[in-house]
Design brief:
Layout: H1 2-17, H2 22-36, H3 42-54, H4 59-98, H5 107-132, H6 136-151, H7 155-172, H8 190-214, H9 217-231, H10 236-247, H11 255-267, H12 275-307, H13 311-315, H14 318-347, H15 351-365, H16 371-388
Helix pairs in contact: 1-4, 2-4, 2-5, 3-4, 3-14, 4-12, 5-14, 5-15, 5-16, 6-7, 6-14, 7-14, 8-9, 8-12, 9-10, 9-12, 11-12
Pfam families: Chromate_transp
Protein name: Chromate efflux transporter
Subcellular location: Cell membrane
Length: 389
Amino acid sequence: MGRYLEIFLVSLKLGLTSFGGPTAHLGYFQEEYIQKRRWLDDQRYAEIIAICQFLPGPASSQVGIAIGMLRGGMLGGFLSWFGFTMPSVVVLMLFALFLQHSTFDAEYLIYGLKITAVAVVAHALSQMSSQLTPDKGRKTIAIIAAIFILLYPTAISQIAIIVTAGIIGAFVYKDQKMSSELSFDFGIGKKSAAFAWVLFFGLLILLPLGRDSVNHMFYSMFDTFFRAGSMVFGGGHVVMPMLEREVVPSGWMTEEAFLAGYGMAQAVPGPLFTLASYLGTVISGVSGGLLATVAIFMPSFLLLIGTLPFWGWLRGKSYFSAALIGINSAVVGILLAALYDPVFTSAVKNSLDLALVLIVYVAIAVWKLPVWKIVLGVISVSLLFTFFG
């Protein structure tokens, strides 16, 4: 029982303090789960990131769920998701109900959180790169991956570079064994995995077919948000325009109402997919918000349950272990590209911004201050500027 409580409380802390979007979340996870708690090592963490890059849905949420499963099986995965996701769900649902006409200006708050996110991601990248790219070959793979992603910033490009890096690794590092202290036991059986795949594809195919005959708002909402969670590669920034095309032309809400939720989703911690919680609440109250939340995250659980049980078996194959060396190097390159765009480019506009990033980075990397305390400090200072600046 103590382990499950720990999983929930740690993920809840991350859900309250992990600002900055999917890439920043990976930095917060690396700080909390690897550097502080030693639940897994950098190598395994990169492998989990690689798995989630292949799957549609919110990558950072899936990484958190997978770590929870590694720590405590399917219940651990659910508790990890619940703690990380619920704070932003609650805030966005309350915003939909009460704050649409608020005059609160979040400019300073968003600015401070973006600056912090740059430092957090840079620190996580430095930690991972030292572990995963120790030689010239792996550093080269990482740099090429970063260049490719910067030139072709699409979800398909991410998958292509991971596959290519895996093929290169399988040939270049075929005689090098991977070492690790932990076993990949996610506590999921193959029967559960098969059932998850059947349920995922069954819902994905059958829900749209029954939409016209059922003709009920909740059924249509579940279909819309389930498809969004099933079909989107690249995380929350990609799902937002897709949801806009679904909910605005259908007449469920106005463009202005959607953009208000879009802006608020950028300012709260946790996964950007919780925009669905806001949208569902606008469409059909609290019950609609809860329904949309369940629908958009359900594919992530089904896909992970269907995929993770086979990871340990694949990892034991020598050719696959060699491929993972290349994949891990590519993950470092992908994070490097993401550090520049969108994390750095959206936050650093002048020398003052860069100076603030360096101050936060020193606080994390040199003075070893906990990231969550830095985030709360940034929020406090931002609110002071908002109300008294």
